[in-house]
Amino acid sequence: MTTVGRFAKPSLVRRLVLLALGWTFAALVISAVVLALLFQQAALRRFDAGLSDLIDNLLAGSTIENGEVVAPALTDLRALRPYSGRYWEIAEPGPDGRVQAIEDLRSRSLWDSELAKPADLAQRLRADPSRPIAFDAAGPQPGETVRVMARWTTFYGRDGPVIFLAAEDRRPIDREVRNFVTATAVAFGLLSVGLILAVIVQVRVGLQPLFRLRREVADVRRGKSERLQADYPTELEPLTDELNALVAHNQETVERQRTHVGNLAHALKTPISVMLTEASQRPGPLAEVVTRQAEVMRQQVDHHLRRARAAARSQGPGERTSVAEVLDELSRTLERIFRDKGVDIDWDAPDDLWFQGERQDFMEIAGNAMENAGKWCKDRVRVRAVADGAERLRLTVEDDGPGLTPQQREEVVRRGARLDESAPGSGLGLSIIDELARAYRGTLALGGSPLGGLSVTVDLPRAGD
Length: 465
Hints:
It is a single chain. Mean pLDDT is 83; it is low at 415-427. By secondary structure, this protein is α+β, with helices and mostly antiparallel strands. Among the domains are: 63-169, Beta-Lactamase (2-Layer Sandwich); 319-463, Histidine kinase-like ATPase, C-terminal domain (Heat Shock Protein 90), CATH 3.30.565.10. Strands 8, 9, 10, 11, 12, 13 and 14 form a seven-stranded mixed β-sheet that branches. The protein has twelve helices and 14 strands.
């Protein structure tokens, strides 16, 4: 399956991880934004508190002489240095309603400039004289932004109101806020990475019983165990109980099929044996016909019974058969059978290669292929069994005999077909291989061998180690 195909399929792990990451990311982003805003507000409150203290000092030290405001002599060095970033100014509402500075009542740091003020400042202060107003404005220096606080007050002995303004360059506090936001983003980024890893680990650990269940089911299918035996969480116990019940039911069904097949074999073979016995005791043309047809009947019965047994076994819980052990046993037996021809059977198979099925079925598949090769070879037979992926194995039997043409290869697989009537046998060997391979959802392929003869390749299910 391609990578795109895997991601297109629904996945519990992916669904849980994405869901957890979604709300985690949203919570982190909201938390970071809220923290940044709270820090900015706290910094501004602290900043405004400093401006309010400066106004308090101005207000406390100011006096009225002959109806005019006299500013105190403040000792704030920053307010004495030109364009230092800390400023104050005493103003009053003008005839046009705008706030205008009272001449010479401003800090030396402003030099010959005035603080910028919104046009409606006097109106806003008059609406609620007890509440100071803070706002941002352009500073006296190019590119400078200052935080300004204005307070409305009145003095005994003066007819008009007086507005005290204090201002300070807010760029340092903006830098402080930016540094905090950067540090918060880095910290939350690292935290998000940690949370992502924690979520992935949590999901993998939480779903571990499901992964273990999958492995156990695979072991049952491959014949490593007969039922699910591990302890599972309460949520999975009903599922494991149902799976064990299904496995037990399947085993009972297979056993009934095997019993039925055995009964059928006994019921058919006994009459055929009686017919053969009676025909052998009464020689003659009729007896020869009966003997010949009874032999064909027995071969066909054996053939179909093999097929039925293989189909029943393939439906049941998996059994495992060592490929190397079977090939070794067959090689020794067939070399003794064909010792008059001096047949040498060269076989090779990994020790950890297992056929997923019963030993008898694999012996019939490999035995028929190797016997056929020994029958038609000159003196060499080569057998190779290899793994073909995680779930399949490939058995190849080659000989140095005359081989077959493509047309003959198609004909010889047909049940009972014999290309040479003088050769011994029933002609069912390759057909048996084909039927058994199909019963195990495998395939049979005939081709030419590098040795010069026929190559028989069988694809079969492989059991896990």
